[in-house]
Amino acid sequence: MKKNAAGSRFVLSRWRKETSAGMAAAMSDSHRRFLQIIMCHGIMEGSQARAVHQHCCQAYGTQHTRSLDEFVDTINSQLQPLFMQIRKGMSEDEGLQYYALVNVADTDVTKMSSDYAANELELFRKTMDLIVDSENGTASSTDILNCADSLQTSKMKKKETEQVLSRLVQDKWLNEKHGEYTLSTRSIMEMEQYIRNTYQDLVKSCAICHNIAFQSQMCSNQSCGVKIHIPCAARYYKGRADPRCPKCSEFWSHEIPDMQTSSQATALNPRASTKDNAAPAASGSQSRRSR
Ligand SMILES: [Zn+2]
Ligand SMILES: [Zn+2]
């Protein structure tokens, strides 16, 4: 929360400074095209965002010298009055970098989308409750189906519930793997503030990246309870023979996965330059590698 609040304050103060001086960074056609594409996808994986950035600059003859983050800053300076922002985040399962267009004005579940009926949003909210309550950031389809039977707005039958769940996956609000549901990177990025306000102490931040941690490893020292995302643990403990909790120094008893993580890994990904710019953003569920 601190990081993001500070981040948006930074953008806001900078926007004010620039506008008060009459110097708000102007968007070119390449910025506008990038914005259109990210609006269309909602979220894009880092390598795809970089490919789209390059494509937009080439298409409009803009010099492609500035970094993607600077390019995005210019767009964000114009989005600020609309309470929108392109934000950078990480997928909890693979540690891939994502760019998402998010609403920074109190996004709660009820405002998440007008495409969903009240009982469908209540089902999503109940799914979030289950995910927050769980140890590993998942909710089983069985538990969600049980909730559907006791919705306040209007009950849902099994078939209808399954249809709503598959729509939530399709729209990239939830990910699903073997009947277990997790919050998508898009949900976490878009609703971070809402999640922190609603669940408060139940939600922990990753000790390494300080973002909300659902799918993560937890310190085995019960009184410590530090959580670390799996890709963050892979990066942090890489090559350490005696992994210890960064807070209490208890032995870190979890398996440390060997995974390619970090933005550098994606930046060097050769697929970035060959990927079709118009291809839909890979959602977590589609792009998951087996490990
Ligand atoms: Zn982390
Ligand atoms: Zn600990």
Provide an overview of this structure.
The structure is a single chain. This protein is 45% helix and 13% strand. By secondary structure, the chain is α+β, with helices and mostly antiparallel strands. The chain folds into 3 domains: 2-105, Aspartate Aminotransferase, domain 1 (Alpha-Beta Complex), CATH 3.90.1150.220; 110-186, Winged helix-like DNA-binding domain superfamily/Winged helix DNA-binding domain (Arc Repressor Mutant, subunit A); 203-257, Zinc/RING finger domain, C3HC4 (zinc finger) (Herpes Virus-1, 2-Layer Sandwich), CATH 3.30.40. The strands form 4 sheets. It has a 3-stranded antiparallel β-sheet with strand order 1-3-2. Strands 4-6-5 form a 3-stranded antiparallel β-sheet. A two-stranded antiparallel sheet has the order 7-8. A hairpin with a 2-residue loop joins strand 5 and strand 6 (180-183). Helix 1 crosses helix 4. It is globular, with a radius of gyration of 20 Å. Bound molecules: zinc ion (2 copies). One zinc ion binds next to loops.
